[in-house]
Design a protein that fits this description.
globular, about 200 residues
Length: about 200
Amino acid sequence: MSKRRLALGVVAVGLLAVVVTLKDAVRARVFALGCRLGSGDACFKGALLYRHADSTALLKRGCEALAHVDSCMALTDAIAVGIAGPPDFAHAEKMCLEGDRRFSRACLQMAEETIRGQFGDYEQQKRAETFLKRACALGSAAGCNGVDGVAARVAESKRVAAIYRACAIDGDAPACVEMNKRVDGMVEAFRRASAN
């Protein structure tokens, strides 16, 4: 390949990146306008395109002013994991446990992240069950149906984390074989689901 073709390829990739970035910037502004005009969906979608303060402002408007369930979920998650400033699990937990029906999906999200160990191991099962029970009380069938399986899911999450650590950190060959089997199984399940 000639140097000229290589240079043209680099320039083309750079221009494509600029076009995509400009397209997202325009889309973000359109969603922000939609949010200001009263669309909770626009608040949520715009927040996915924006970063940090702008994103958080859109989610707050979508959740607090427009009672948009997905905005409340994303806002709670952003606060819990630190996207909307320093991580503040206690504040996110309070939003879920003291919130109204808008926070049903937020409670489900907090439960899922707790099961996966996002917030540490401290009372993992008990906290996840509390989040699911609250989601159930707020009208979420998934919350009601998920409570009974929490213990097994927490145990499986811890087992997978231990296998991953053994493979990735310690280089344990049997653990790496187990991880490969799990990944192959997930890929196959995805293929089956995509085929339907």
